[in-house]
Amino acid sequence: MITVKDVEVVWPANWKTVVDAFLESYHVHAVHPEILPFYDDYHQQWDLYDHGMSRMLMMFAAVSPRHSDQESVNAVLASMLQEVGIDPATFGKSAADVREAIQQAKLALPDRLGKTAGDYTANQMTDDWAYFAFPNVTFNIHPEGVLVQRFRPHPSDPEKMIYDVTVLIHPITDPSIRIPGYMGVEEGTDLTGAVRPERRYLTHGDGGVGPVLEQDGVMVPIVQTGVHSRGFKGARLSEQEQRVRHFHAEIDRYLNGEKW
After folding, report:
1. Phi, psi of 157, rounded to the nearest 5 degrees
2. Backbone phi, then psi, for 256, in 5-degree steps?
3. What is the model's pLDDT at position 110?
4. Can you give the pLDDT at residue 89?
5. What is the C-alpha separation between 237 and 23, in angstroms, rounded?
6. Pairing with 72, which of 140, 242, 245, 251 sits 20 to 30 Å away (CA)?
7. Strand partners of residue 162
8. Does residue 99 lie within any of the structural domains?
9. What confidence score (pLDDT) does residue 117 get?
10. Domain that holds residue 206
11. Cα pseudo-dihedral 11, 208, 145, 251, rounded to 10
12. Is 260 part of a structural domain of the chain?
């Protein structure tokens, strides 16, 4: 695989505060409502592994139950169909049929999947398989590539962290093959691997990490401020925060001396 995006930015929040935001998806309807037309944020699969590791399976090309229009092939779904060579104008089906249609189309387009073509299940063709490697790395895995996020402690200020965003893809030489828009790769990026992009050092709030991640970047400093409230006595985590709870339980094992 090749690198097609490589950025670093300092965010004004502790690294653990930021990790929390990427271990659940119940905030999506409030923070990222624009993705509800193509992302089912309600039906999730969570898997908890040893040593604080976990996974979340997120259905893409599926309309959120919270979205008002459940029938129409909306503009984003239409674009996703076009990305795999399906003409939305002649699709002739409803939004509920889009996910399966895209899965079948991708399975028939092995060139976009590199050497791993043929190794996938149907839901891996469309969905975001989001893995968390304790303590500070996430992998959002799609058939075309992987979004790698790393949350590093700031060397001198616990109220800040260093956020690394890297996108890896299988090299694409066929100009007719389009990388999905949700991977956040800028238009005009070389997808062949001939030119590796230079690492970009960004400023918090400048939008360079991508619109959805930038929205998280707006919210986590607010959460960080709330940690210092006199009314905050510690987190009370819900069933929707099982991965967050799993993460902090592992941290506590180190702080309590159970692990080292």
Report:
1. -130, 110
2. -85, -5
3. 67
4. 96
5. 12
6. 140
7. 10, 152
8. yes
9. 64
10. 2-255
11. 0
12. no
Number of domains in the chain: 1
Phi and psi, residue 242, nearest 5°:
-60, -40
Asked, for residue 56, whether it belongs to a domain, the answer is yes
- State the CATH number of the domain containing residue 38: 3.90.380.10
Q: Six-digit token pair at 228?
A: 């210092």
Averaged pLDDT in 10-residue chunks for the chain of 260 residues: 95 97 93 95 95 96 96 96 93 97 86 68 92 97 92 97 95 78 84 92 88 92 95 90 96 95
Q: What is the DSSP string of the chain?
A: -EEEEEEEEEESS-HHHHHHHTS--TTHHHH-GGGTTTEEEEEEEEEE-GGG-EEEEEEESS--TTSS-SSS--HHHHHHHHHTT--GGGT-S-GGGHHHHHHHHHHT-GGGGGGGTT---GGGGTSEEEEEETTTEEEEEETTEEEEEEEEEPSS-TT-EEEEEEEEE-----TT----GGG-PPTT---SSSSPPPPEEE-TTSSTT-HHHHHHHHHHHHHHHHHT-TT--S----GGGHHHHHHHHHHHHHHTTS--
**Residue carrying structure tokens 């996910």:** 99
Query: Which pLDDT score, from 0 to 100, does residue 170 have?
Result: 86
Tell me how far apart the alpha carbons of residues 104 and 83 are, in angstroms, rounded to a whole number: 13
Can you tell me the distance from the alpha carbon of 155 to that of 162, in angstroms, rounded to the nearest whole number?
9
Cα distance between residue 96 and residue 71, in whole Å: 7
CB count, 10 Å around CB of 251? 15
Distances (CA, A) of 169 to 115, 163, 165: 12, 20, 13
| pLDDT attached to residue 221 | 96
Q: What type of residue is 258?
A: E
